[in-house]
Amino acid sequence: MLTLTGEAAAHWRTLVAHQRPEWPSTAELDEVVDHLAALLPLVKPQECDTLTARLAQAAEGKAFLLQGGDCAERFDCLSTRVIHSKLRLLQQMAVILAHASAVPVVKVGRMAGQYAKPRSRPTETVAGRTLPVYRGDAVNGIGFSQAERLPDPARLLRMYDVSRYTLDVMRAYARGGTDLRQLHRRSQDFVARSPVGERYEEFAGRIAQALSSGNACGDDRLPTTELFASHEGLLLDYEAALTRRDPRSGRRYAGSGHMLWIGDRTRQLDGAHVAYFATIDNPIAVKLGPATTPEQALALIDRLDPDRRPGRLTFIVRMGAHRVRYLLPQLVEKVTASGAPVVWVCDPMHGNTFEAPSGHKTRRFDDIVAEVAGFFEVHKAFGTHAGGLHIELTGEDVTECVGGGADLGFDDLHRNYESACDPRLNADQALDLAFLVAEMFHPGATGTGAPDAAVDAAARQAHHGSSPASSGT
Ligand code: PEP
Ligand code: CO
């Protein structure tokens, strides 16, 4: 628990914040920050604590995290319908994963704040012309002109407004509850029309049966749905302006979202991001790319979770399909030996990006599946828990990743490529992934705390003889 003095809480300001935009005017930034500091936080400390408790379950293998959404949200694409379809997709996937894993699935949107992007290069060159790179709608515009690419602090206020709107939509959706049978019928429709659907038919049918028996997940009609919001906490000026001390507990919380993560490019131990994250009490995550050493992972734990509070710290591993099997074991081994209760989550997206011949950034569906399979295999070997998935996805019918049931090819990418940054799975690819991941669980090994019918469904799945998928490798 953290009860910091103002000075300790501001220490990060003296350190280097990598990926910080070059705001053209400090005075203007200060004005925006003052404005933000006077606004209400977007999330409540109690909600953040609830998520920490859920993640503590995931650390023990008694829950599974499903975190997903756009790589980069866009101001101009704000749409209630699009938010709903993303939430519905997350829920459909959650039903599939819950029945396979026999544990509750914690649903966390990569949304309502995912407006800032770390970039590998500070500039972009098109047809011989070089301009500052696009850093997300919170910083500059995506259009290729000097004016658009100039960082504008006023965008931080817009970020607050659109995040608040998105959270309002999420909360209303959550209050509306869910008819799980109806929801799952959509997944069955997907199975019926998917070219590879036959493989999932039996399992999807078993889920339907369990839901009809009326006691799966407590009831087939959930009066409310629990949803959380998360984003990369990249822009510390924004995050700090929305950080508040909870008068009841004296603890400090980032008010911009329930869960924040530090990206692979900003996790330096002596950097401002780690120092700022150490001052907040939200559940937090760190992305760990292929360059991560076990020593760095242990040092991050010491800095960010000195009290070893279960649910506080999640490691989102993104090694790449061809590296996860030999890079993850050393991290899991050393962290487990240290006794730290981290949640291990697999991001099978960011280690598998490449450029298609057309110039589109893309990912192969099979690589994504292969990385998740490797992640599960490593945890099985160590007797540790595969605690969750972190996926870039959308409920829309985009053509950004290749492969999947419909076998999208490079020639399809131009048809509906809408991402402002990294390629997302479309709704069908995401459901495809959920069914394939369902096959990777080892039912019986994780069965505590799950509703009986879900345990039954998972046990029946085991007898069905599905093997841990190594599909697509
Ligand atoms: C991202 O999640 O979009 C991202 C940039 O990830 P990473 O920090 O893992 O590269
Ligand atoms: Co991304």
The average pLDDT score comes to 92
| Integer count of domains | 1
What gyration radius follows from the Cα positions, in whole Å? 21 Å
Question: Quick one: how many beta strands?
Answer: 16
The CATH architecture is Alpha-Beta Barrel
Range of strand content: 5-15%
Number of helices: 15
Distinct small molecules: phosphoenolpyruvate, cobalt (II) ion
The percent of residues in helical segments reads 25-40%
What does the overall shape look like?
globular
Which spans have pLDDT < 50 for at least 5 consecutive residues? 443-473
What name does CATH use for the topology?
TIM Barrel
| Major sheet | 8 strands, parallel, barrel
CATH class: Alpha Beta
Quick structural overview:
By secondary structure, the protein is α/β, with parallel strands linked by helices. 40% of the residues lie in helices and 14% in strands.
Description:
This protein is α/β, with parallel strands linked by helices. The protein has one domain: Aldolase class I (TIM Barrel, Alpha-Beta Barrel). Helix content is 40%, strand content 14%. The strands form five sheets. The chain has an eight-stranded parallel β-barrel, surrounded by five helices. Strands 3-4 form a two-stranded antiparallel sheet. Helix 7 (180-193) packs antiparallel against helix 8 (198-212) and helix 12 packs parallel to helix 13 (365-382). Bound molecules: phosphoenolpyruvate and cobalt (II) ion.
